[in-house]
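Entry — protein

Goal — fold tokens:
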Amino acid sequence: MQPKARRAVLAFAFITVTLDMLAISLIAPVFVPLVQRFLDGDVARTATIVGLLGTSFALMQFLWSPFFGVLSDRFGRKPILVISGLAVALDYCIMALAPNVTWLFIGRTLSGIASANATAASAYVADVSPPEKRAAAFGLLGAAFGLGFVIGPAFGGLLGAIGPRVPFWAAAALSLGNALFGLLVVPESLAREHRSPFTFRRANPLGSFRLLRANRTLLNLGALSFGSALAGVVMPSTWVLYVTYRYGWGASAIGLSLAGVGVSSVIAQAIVVRPFVRHFGERIALLAGLAFGTIGLVLCGAAATGPLFFVGLPFLSLWGLAGAAAQSLMTRAVTPAQQGELQGTINSIRGVAALIGPILFTSTFAFGIAGSRNVPGAAWFAGAVLLLLALAATPSVKDLGGEKTTHAVETVA
């Protein structure tokens, strides 16, 4: 692929993920108030419904990510991303017009299905990036996730001041614009000779895990990725609960802390990953990222004051080194015709973590502050333990085939 076309593909993948996350976070400031309005101000019922909506979204991601991945291995990345982009736009229109909670639930469920297109976006990146540059490219995708979450709520709040439905229409417009950009500008990245037949055995989330079982290195990296993803759920699950309980922070301080970790994560993913991997290799980046994450979780969980809590945030942002390096290493272990299936499996792993993480960490937080225990950071310490277990699953230098710049591992049959 020519450099100009490659840049267009990478830009499309980056914009797709950014807009997916932006659209999701854009509606955040108005979503809960809208549900509460439908329920006549009943806060308890609102909390229950919002929790169910979140679970539904995560479940759809888990179920549909492998499907989109295998579908992109069969028909190419471009049509999957374009069609799913159009579906996301339609979905936000449905939610903008929703007359009650039922329609909002339908829209949120469809959004979880269509937003599984991150699988095809990751496969797009793997197709056009040389193996030695994939970690940096996946780092940019990680930055896209962070960027969408950082700027989305701010714009959503401004648009929500105009009207509670306006952010939904804005999210629909952004998704439609990106789908048209992909349709008219971006070339296909998967050559026809590298495409593979579609089978439901590969496309369902349980069947997709066979790819990991076929290769010990992939299995180790998959277990590692699950541990890291599960540990990461501690932040969205308990952040507000923790800082409110321990430091008595209000909305402005909470927003500042979330923006701080978001901005620092974007910087780390976009700027730090590439030179770090170039100088030290992907395995060291993987180990360093997990170590930084462990340190950050321990510091935040042990912080007795707000300023000390902020000390841990830079370490948490460098945790992103691990995700980009692990994903890059996993792409080396499969053929071009299996990249979509692999990315679907990776997203399913993250989906499982998103499903079980909230109840795990909120329960751990509640246990830590119950009675006379007085361990408000218990959930953060539990996340650190998970990262230590992930470190133990890191493949050896021999398994990865090199010391500094790793080479391709055994191809899955």
Q: What stands out?
A: The CA atoms of residues 24 and 152 lie 8 Å apart. Residues 43-75 form the longest helix (33 residues).
